[in-house]
Amino acid sequence: MKVLIIGCGRVGSRLAQELDREGHEVTIVDNNPGAFSRFASRGVFEDSFAGSFMVGDGTEADLLRRAGAEEADCFIAVTQGDNRNIMAAQIAQNVFKVDKVVARIYDPIRTEVYRKLGLSVFCPTTEGAATVRRMIKD
Description:
The structure is a single chain. The chain is built from six helices and six strands, in the order E-H-E-H-E-H-E-H-E-H-E-H. By secondary structure, the chain is α/β, with parallel strands linked by helices. The protein has one domain (2-137): Rossmann fold (3-Layer(aba) Sandwich), CATH 3.40.50.720. The relative contact order is 0.15.
């Protein structure tokens, strides 16, 4: 599977490494060039990592095209900003017609709105609260 990940933070870098290990073709994009070296120095990206890194804004169609969005099977937006994740996901879904598009959205209200509009979204805020509730009930 060809995977395009926007955001090289903790989630994006770990996901890139795990998907690469499974044999998928991974490209990860971040607007901060230091993000790639920061996670490499922490051992997240192993020497065997075969994925590609691109510096730029994941909401720019030209950059996404150069990163391979037209051929991507899966697009994952996990930057720190809800707006950027929503916009990047909508571009992937509507412009590049990527089959599987996932976006992280921290705001629970926005999560429901965009889910109703057909985006596959997850909200660490609500998922984290649900996990804690389960933990304290046991």
